[in-house]
Design brief:
By secondary structure, the chain is α/β, with parallel strands linked by helices. It has six helices and eight strands, in the order βαβαβββαβαββαα. Helix 3 crosses helix 5. The protein is globular and about 80 Å long.
Amino acid sequence: MIYVSRCYRIRESTPVVHAGVLRAWGRDLRWAWPKDGNRETLEGAGIALADQYRKQGLDMWPEYAHYDNGGEKSVSVEAGLADMLTRMESGRFKVFKHNNDWLDEFRLYHRKDGKVHKEHDDLLCATRYAVMMLRFAQTPKEHSTFHGPIKYPKRTWI
């Protein structure tokens, strides 16, 4: 089950501003990023976008968001959209109703000449990246169990 419980969208801002907002959501969150996040940007003075967010304290995945198809990486937009649609139709994808920006993008999402019209779709793309990386998702209980203190059994030695 996937829940979109929160979203954030702002235009023409820097990674410093974005990271400041996203860090407040929780230090234990891990962030997926697109394949082009490795590309050096003019605005970042030649530093890859994913690295700029890392430097701002966000826990970025070591590699870009992708499906793992038997050892082969796939970043197919169509596969991601089909996955999301299947989850929506089967009731395994829910968006909290206060996420107006996400719902607005979803309502405007469409195809032109059979191809996805990729304009004003930042939140939907971010959601698609999260869906691609779902295989790594953990509940807070799983996370704290894995990262908690090691508990050794009490033993007596003779």
